[in-house]
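Key result, reporting period 2: structure in, sequence out.
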């Protein structure tokens, strides 16, 4: 009886190809999730930046004398707006419940993947300021 020579231990070409195919299926299955995650993170960073720009503008307007608030224009500028694609700063001042209160709306609009996104902050400004009776 003839003995077969000892088989080498290791991977055959077929086993390596099967493992490579399984790995490719896993990678291509996870790829859309990764792409969505990176896009979502980028959008979240832009929204956070727009919120920061709005909040800074609100604080700037709050530090102005009350009588000059009504004379503000409809737009504002910020160095940070250039970090948003097509970033625009918008502001609106409306009369409030009485002569001593104004409604201030600060908005930042920008383009993101073919759509326009917008962040708004609305606050009220009084002649006497915050927490004064």
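The corresponding designed sequence is given below.
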């Amino acid at each position: 009886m003839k003995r077969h020579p000892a088989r080498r231990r290791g991977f055959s070409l077929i086993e390596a190809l099967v493992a490579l195919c399984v790995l490719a299926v896993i990678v291509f299955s996870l790829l859309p999730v990764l792409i969505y995650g990176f896009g979502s993170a980028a959008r979240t960073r832009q929204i956070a930046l727009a919120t920061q720009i709005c909040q800074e503008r609100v604080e700037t307007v709050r530090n102005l004398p009350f009588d000059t608030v009504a004379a503000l224009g409809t737009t504002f500028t910020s160095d940070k707006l250039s970090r948003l694609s097509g970033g625009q700063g918008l502001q609106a001042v409306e009369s409030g419940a009485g002569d001593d209160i104004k409604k201030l709306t600060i908005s930042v609009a920008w383009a993101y993947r073919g759509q326009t996104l917008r962040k708004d902050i609305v606050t009220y400004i009084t002649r006497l300021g915050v927490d004064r009776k």
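DSSP finds two helices and four strands in the chain. Residues 13-126 form a domain with the Pantoate--beta-alanine Ligase; Chain: A,domain 2 fold (CATH 3.30.1300). This case is discussed further under Risks and Mitigation.
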